[in-house]
Amino acid sequence: MTFSNFIDILWQNRKAILLSGASVFVLATILAFVLPFTYTASATFLPPGTNTGGSSAIAMMGQLSALGGGGGASSLLGGKSQADLFVGLLKSHSVSHALIQRFDLKKVYKVKKESDAAKALTAHSNFEADSKSSIIQIEVTDKSPQRASDLANGYLEALQDASANLALTESSQRRLFYEQRLAKERDDLANAEVELKQDQEKSGLIAPAGQTASELQTLAQLRSQVSEREVRLASLQYYESEDNPDVLRLRQEIASLKEHVAQLENGQNKGQFGSFSTAQVPEMQLEYIRKARDVKYHEVLFESIAKQYEAARLDEAKDTPLQIIDKATVPDTKSGPHRGIIMLIGLILGLMAGTVWVLFRVAQQQAR
C-alpha cells in the first residue's frame, strides 16, 4: 500500500473515523466531568547536618549496622546523599504505618488491609529531593484539601519521630562509633588491671621506678598513640577515599610510630629512649613490666578515645533537627483532573481506533 492509497482510504472512510473520534471524545468528556476534584498540598524541609555531607552518613551507617549499632537504619542504605536517605525514610513502613493509624486511612481509601492502605498512600504521595540544595519536597494529593494538607504535615511529624531513634548525621554516627570503642576500651583496661594485680599478688613485685618506669610510660604512650590514630583512621575511612590527604597523613604517622615502638621494645634506639631493653630484665620482672605497660597503654588510649567521644557528642548537640522550610497549607485550587487533557487524549484515541478499524476492514476486503 502506497502513501497515496493510505490517504485515499482515510478520506473515503472519514465519516467512520470522525464518528469513532467523536464517540470516544464524548465518553472522555463525561469521564472528565464525573471524576472528583483532587487537591495537592506540599511541604518542604532540609535534612539535618546537610552541610556535613550525606555520603558519610550512609557509609558509616552501614559499618555501624555491621557492628550491631545500626539497628533499623541499615534498611535505608543505598542512597547517595543525605537527602536520599531521608526520602528513603519517608517511604519506610514506620512512617506509612504512623500515618495510616493517625488518619484512619483504611477507612479513607476503603480497604481492609494495612498493606493496601500503604499502597494507596504511596500512590497519592510524591517525594523529590533537589540534588544541589538537598531540599526535600513532600506532595500529597487527596480529594479533600484539608486532608491533603494534614497528610503532608503528618509526614513531617512522622519523619521527626522516626529519625529521632536513628543517628542520621555524621556527628551522631561519630558519637556512636567512639561510644562503642570507648565501651570496648573500658573493658580492655579493666581486664589489663586485673591481670596486673594478679601478677603482683603472684610474684610480689612492685611497680618499677626510675628510668625503667619512665621508659615504660613512654612506650605505653607511643602504643596508645598508634591505636588512637588507628581509631581515627577507621572513623575517617567510613566517609573518605584512600587518597584523601588526612587518610594518607594518618597512615604515615601510624607507620612512623610503629617503627619507634618496635625500636624501643627491641632496645635498638637507646640514644633517644635510654638504655632500657627487655632483653636485660629478668623473666619474672619482664612479665610484670609487660602487664604494667598494657595497663598504661589502655589508660592513655581510654583517655584519648574519651576526648574524641566528648568532641563528637558536643558536635551532635549542635546539630539542628529537621529544618522545616514550608509547612503544608490547605490548597485553594484543584490540581486535577485535567479535563482538557483527558478530552484531548480521548479524541486522539478515538481517531486512532477509527483509523485502525478502517484499515483492518479494508485489509479484509482485499483478502477476499
UniProtKB/TrEMBL annotation:
**Highest taxon of the lineage:** Bacteria
Q: Which residues cross the membrane?
A: 341-360
**Topology of the protein relative to the lipid bilayer:** Multi-pass membrane protein
Q: Where does it reside? A: Cell membrane
GO cellular-component terms in the record? plasma membrane
Coiled-coil segments:
175-202
Q: Where is the Polysaccharide chain length determinant N-terminal domain?
A: 4-101
Entry-linked InterPro entries:
Bact_polysacc_biosynth/exp (IPR050445), GNVR (IPR032807), LPS_length_determ_N (IPR003856)
Query: Is Membrane found in the keyword set?
Result: yes
Write out the GO MF terms.
Answer: protein tyrosine kinase activity
Keyword Transmembrane annotated: yes
The record's Pfam families line, in alphabetical order, gives:
GNVR, Wzz
Its primary localisation, in coarse terms, equals membrane
Q: Which residues form the Tyrosine-protein kinase G-rich domain?
A: 284-362
Name the UniProt key words of this record, in alphabetical order: Cell membrane, Coiled coil, Membrane, Transmembrane, Transmembrane helix
Read off the PANTHER family from this record.
FERRIC ENTEROBACTIN TRANSPORT PROTEIN FEPE (PTHR32309:SF13), TYROSINE-PROTEIN KINASE (PTHR32309)
Q: What is this protein called?
A: Lipopolysaccharide biosynthesis protein
- State the organism named in the record: Granulicella mallensis (strain ATCC BAA-1857 / DSM 23137 / MP5ACTX8)
